[in-house]
């Protein structure tokens, strides 16, 4: 029975990196003094999250920049205004919503396992089973709660 529980925990934790792949990048310095960046933090390494900014420029900023470029290129500011950004198709939007719901479900299941399991195991970069210490487990709990906020929305 313990083996089945361990397999469930490993399976659930193995899906966690898929949730964070686009959500977070980490920075740390390796033993040779080289700065490393990755979507995953190696076990036993103190890493700091790197803030990522994906926000596009506002329509006003983009319009002003386009106007300056046209003036410099000789096209003049009176040329055709930029087209509105394309809206995602209904199929793409439905797929995004389905993926969001799946990410929410997996994050909640990960939280349930992390909160109820006394020992939590994960795989290291070489694929070996590694038991998470209390600090690592706490970090996973915090990251999982952030994922729930991101994929499931704020708690009611």
Give an overview in words.
This protein is 51% helix and 12% strand. The two termini are 35 Å apart. Helix 1 crosses helix 3 (90-116) and helix 3 (90-116) packs antiparallel against helix 4 (134-152). The longest helix has 27 residues, at 90-116. It has a domain at 2-23 and 89-152. With 156 residues, the protein is mainly alpha-helical.
- β-strand percent reads 5-15%
Mean pLDDT: 75
Q: Give the strand line-up of the largest sheet.
A: 2-1-3
Poorly predicted regions are: 17-21
Number of strands: 5
What is the H/E string? Answer: HEEEHHEEH
User: Shape, please?
Assistant: flat
Task: Estimate the helix proportion, in percent.
Answer: 40-55%
How many helix segments?
A: 4
Q: How would a crystallographer describe the biggest sheet?
A: 3 strands, antiparallel
Distance between the amino and carboxyl termini: 35 Å
Radius of gyration: 22 Å
Outline the fold blueprint.
Elements: H1 2-20, E1 25-29, E2 35-38, E3 48-50, H2 59-73, H3 90-116, E4 121-123, E5 129-131, H4 134-152
Antiparallel strand pairs: 1-2, 1-3, 4-5
Helix pairs in contact: 1-3, 3-4
Task: Spell out the key features of this protein.
156 residues; mainly alpha; 4 helices
Summarize the structure.
With 156 residues, the chain is mainly α. It is built from four helices and five strands.
């Amino acid at each position: 029975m313990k083996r089945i529980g361990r397999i469930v925990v490993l399976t659930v934790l193995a899906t966690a990196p898929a949730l964070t792949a686009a959500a977070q990048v980490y920075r740390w310095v390796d033993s040779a003094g080289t700065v490393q960046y990755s979507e995953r933090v190696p076990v036993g390494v103190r890493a700091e999250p790197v803030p990522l900014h994906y926000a596009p420029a506002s329509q006003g900023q983009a319009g002003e920049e386009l106007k300056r470029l046209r003036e410099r290129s000789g096209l003049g500011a009176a040329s055709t205004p930029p087209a509105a950004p394309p809206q995602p198709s209904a199929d793409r939007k439905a797929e995004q919503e389905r993926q969001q719901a799946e990410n929410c479900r997996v994050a909640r299941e990960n939280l349930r396992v992390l909160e109820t399991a006394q020992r939590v195991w994960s795989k290291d970069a070489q694929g070996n089973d590694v038991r998470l210490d209390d600090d690592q487990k706490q970090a996973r709990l915090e990251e999982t709660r952030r994922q729930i906020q991101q994929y499931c929305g704020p708690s009611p």
